[in-house]
């Protein structure tokens, strides 16, 4: 297989035309923010899901610093992936009189009571990277183009398998097929997991239809592939089971669609423990990823993990702050998508940011030269 090609590649999600009208910056039934208040008189409540994921720690730090630099007070809480804790934290923020809420939910459907309460108090709500569902009281959504994340992950898998060339066209020197692959999805209570899956599977479907790719486990539904809470250990255990059940008779596993880096590392651990690899050049199956976590960037640099998707949380935090500031001033935040994100009750106006595919051939330019990581951090795999 052609797993270790080096070239400079950056595939980005195409942003829709800017300036589309967004819905008003007030929750249903709200009286709206105090547009006369100075930033120093306003507190933004920031609810984050967990500190066990590297990216959420970075998101929180970027948001807190950005808001404080603009003069706002910040009440930021991490719920350690416990839904009742996040509910209580948001209730406390509302009771303390925050001027706005910025919420990265654990379960997007679990906060309806809190959103109703916020609306009754005139507190606007911005969903951060995870859509808040089943409620009309969501004013805005800032995220990445999550469907395109899935498309990029599928293309990264196809490229790593040698089926696509550097231009993402069918490769002239494609390997003999069919090729065996397995599919992993994220947590079903995270709306993003469904969009990642949809983007990836719609991209891969023609290869399944023509028999180029085969899933020996036949676990091709998101419910079968889901990984609750995006846990690395859960992904590792499932991969171990797949290898034991479906690859003990000489069948060769060519690649795995993995939607996030912790899952990728669990999958890689399982494969290496089973004697595969230990590197791509030495026969390790291709494994995708997401979030460009430092431990996975080291694996990419070392020729172990094939790819990841970089979502620059610095930009996401900045956009969230811009949107929050607009709402707090009584203005409509700028949206570039007013059609995609239906939360079950309303289409939430959204701002989507670009994503970039990271491979061994471009991680230095994308992540090191941009200042996101240092060479020393990549070399050690630690921040």
Automatic annotation (TrEMBL):
Pfam family for this entry, one: Peripla_BP_4
Localization terms from the record: Cell envelope
InterPro entries per the UniProt record, alphabetical: Bact_Solute-Bind_Prot2, ChvE-like, Peripla_BP_I, SBP_2_dom, TAT_signal
Periplasmic binding protein domain boundaries: 44-332
Coiled coil among keywords: no
Annotated signal peptide: 1-28
Keywords: Signal, Sugar transport, Transport
Recorded superkingdom: Bacteria
Protein name per Swiss-Prot or TrEMBL: Multiple sugar transport system substrate-binding protein
């Amino acid at each position: 297989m052609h797993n270790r090609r080096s070239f400079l590649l950056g595939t980005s999600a195409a942003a829709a035309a800017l300036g589309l009208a967004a819905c008003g910056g007030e929750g249903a039934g709200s009286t709206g923010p105090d547009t006369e208040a100075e930033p120093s008189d306003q507190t933004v409540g920031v609810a984050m899901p967990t500190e066990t994921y590297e990216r959420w720690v970075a998101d929180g730090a970027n948001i807190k610093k950005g808001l404080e630099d603009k003069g706002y007070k910040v009440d930021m809480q991490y719920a350690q992936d416990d839904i009742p804790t996040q509910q209580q934290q948001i209730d406390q923020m509302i009771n303390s009189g925050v001027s706005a809420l910025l919420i990265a939910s654990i379960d997007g459907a679990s906060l309806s009571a809190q959103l109703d309460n916020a609306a009754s108090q005139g507190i606007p709500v911005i969903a951060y990277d995870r859509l808040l569902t089943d409620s009309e009281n969501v004013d805005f959504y800032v995220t990445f183009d999550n469907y395109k994340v899935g498309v990029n992950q599928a293309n990264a898998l196809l490229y790593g398998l040698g089926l696509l060339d550097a231009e993402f066209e069918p490769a002239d020197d494609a390997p003999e097929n069919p090729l065996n692959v397995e599919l992993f999805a994220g947590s079903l209570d995270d709306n993003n997991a469904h969009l990642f899956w949809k983007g990836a599977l719609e991209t891969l479907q023609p290869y399944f239809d023509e028999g180029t790719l085969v899933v020996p486990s036949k676990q091709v539904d998101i419910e079968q592939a889901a990984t609750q809470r995006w846990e690395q250990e859960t992904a590792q255990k499932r991969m171990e089971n797949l290898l034991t059940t479906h690859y003990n008779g000489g069948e060769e596993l060519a690649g795995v669609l993995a939607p996030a880096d912790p899952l990728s590392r669990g999958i890689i651990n399982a494969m290496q423990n089973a004697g595969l690899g230990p590197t791509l050049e030495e026969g390790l199956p291709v494994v995708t990823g997401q979030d460009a976590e430092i431990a996975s960037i080291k694996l990419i640099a070392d020729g172990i993990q094939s790819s990841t998707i970089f979502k620059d949380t610095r930009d996401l935090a900045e956009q969230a702050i811009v949107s929050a500031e607009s709402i707090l001033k009584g203005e409509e935040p700028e949206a570039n998508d007013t059609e995609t994100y239906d939360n079950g009750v309303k289409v939430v106006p959204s701002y989507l940011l670009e994503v970039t595919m990271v491979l061994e051939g471009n991680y230095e330019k994308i992540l090191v030269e941009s200042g996101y990581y240092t060479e020393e951090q990549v070399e050690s795999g630690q921040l």
